Amino acid sequence: MFGIESVSGPMGAAIIIGAVLVEAILLYVGYGVLEQVLGPTITKALRGD
After folding, report:
1. Is 9 left (phi over 0), alpha (psi -120 to 50) or beta?
2. pLDDT tens digits for range 1-49
């Protein structure tokens, strides 16, 4: 899809590791934002407030 399958060897490994790292950072930040925004609302709903 991105053309990284044509890269092999150490450069291919570095690209894949970089892509996984970027994805992990984006997910970490995204879930943190969701928790900040929706966390209190969900907590209140579960407590019955």
Report:
1. left
2. 667 777 788 988 898 899 999 999 999 999 999 999 999 999 999 998 8
pTM confidence score: 0.68
Q: b/e string for 6-38 if b means 16 or more Cβ within 10 A?
A: eeeeeeeeeeeeeeeeeeeeeeeeeeeeeeeee
Q: Give, in order, the Cα–Cα distances in Å from 37 to each of 2, 7, 20, 40, 41.
A: 33, 40, 26, 7, 8
- Give the list of residues 6+ apart from residue 19 with CB closer than 8 angstroms, or none: 2, 4
